[in-house]
Amino acid sequence: AHLVESGGGLVQPGGSLRLSCAASGFTLRYYGMSWFRQAPGKEREGILCIGPSDGTTYYKASGQDRFTISIDSANNTMYLQMNRLKPEDTAVYYCAADGHGCSWIRTPHYWGQGTQVTVSS
What we know:
There is one protein chain. By secondary structure, the chain is mainly beta. It contains no helices and eleven strands. It has strands spanning 2-6, 9-11, 17-24, 32-38, 45-50, 57-59, 67-72, 77-82, 91-98, 110-111, 115-119. Strand 7 and strand 8 form a beta hairpin. The model has no long low-confidence stretch (mean pLDDT 94).
């Protein structure tokens, strides 16, 4: 099983970016699919997760509604739409898959390699 992120880059504050997470070797809509990020000098943190049963989105923390998650089942790909980006959103973004659903306690089964997002003018 593999996850491959793409779509990162440099964006100005206030801008938008959409990250992709392509899955192979498993069907991601049957998994709890999450996005995490790790900023320089900080621990990796969860952002949001979409559940496998009803597609409910779970946010790790409040105030993250600038981010939305979606799944394209036909292409076995997950997306993270990020709007109104701030410099503090600068981080490496990772997608992850958990066969048991969404949980901020368990460690997901599969991880992508990460994609860099830099928010700067």
